[in-house]
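Incident log, structure service

09:12 report received: a user says their structure output differs between two submissions of the same chain.
09:20 pulled the input from the user's history:
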Amino acid sequence: MRIFLIIGVIFFCSVPNAKGESDSLAVGIDAVVTKFMAKSKYTGLSIAAYNKGKMRFNQSYGYSNHTTLKPFTTHESIALGSNIKTLVAAAILLLEENNKLKLTDKLAQHLPFKLNQAQAITIEDMLCHVSDLPDVFGGDGYDDYEWQKAKSQKEFIDQLNQSKRKISPKVEYRYNNTAYFLLGLVIEHISHQPLGDYFRAQIFSPLHLDHAYYLGDSYYYPQLTKMYQLKDGAIADYEDPVEYRIVAGAGALGGDITAYSKLFSGILTGDVLAETSKTKMKTPCRLADGSFAVNRKKQQTGLGIEISQMDDQRVFSRGGAMNGHVSAIVHFEKTGLTMAIVGNTFMRLAPVLDSIFEQKLHHQFN
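09:34 re-ran on a clean worker, output below:
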């Protein structure tokens, strides 16, 4: 397997500013990205800054194919994985707006099949990651279960019904992919639509997104960019990809970085959701004792998003990792700035955004 280092930086800028201004905006970010890619051997990535309805910065670095050295572009379609959780939360809130359910409803009310302990948890518990449901996606009790090789969604349901563990909702935060997988099934059951159809009609279309995709159904979606991982110190093809149809509401989202930026910003600030629903999404979840549900990064949890503080304002974030593709996105509540990063190699990209924020480079896009 060929080993390479990123020596230069490749740009594919789609910012509608004069070239001089575009170049000056890029300088600091280029330095952060070049250092990261040289150290990590990262193959290819894109960074975008979107604010006030305009793409202020949108550039790509490295390669979409490390063998042919084909440049990575801002038009690469990426598996966005767990970013779908923000869409699932938005879809549930839309159903609530239409009086199809309430967040306080028990899960059992909205499933077309029997599920053990579904009467013990609410829809909101699941959105907040405080349901304590057994997590077939590698959670306690499923260490030996190879969920990546599941042949059907029913297999997950059968696995859940075999669990004998008594759950304790609202006691602690515990990230739970199974909860969002089940919420996807709830959306389908109530709406009488496949999850992809619901997303396209209720979210993608209103936001005018041509390059956002639900990857879990047979509807056409484009070829995703090649997937890589670091193996024995060298870049290698990603092994054992998961089938998007199986993970569904837990991780079957795709799109390019422009659609990613507009999608996240649009859900939080646009007209897809009513103001009351957006407020619910952005309100920190609480445990039974009244304390906030907090993840291991000390972030509070909203509905399908994480909540923290930066630049004296609230910041909403989300990220994903699926089949070798990695993504992260951050939205600043007061300034309206959304910054996103996507890449084609299975390693964390959030530290790149963290470096940009630490150096205050994002202030140029406000």
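09:41 both user submissions now match this output. Likely a transient worker issue. Closing.
09:42 reviewer note: Residues 1-21 have pLDDT under 50 and may be disordered. The first strand starts at residue 44 and ends at 51.
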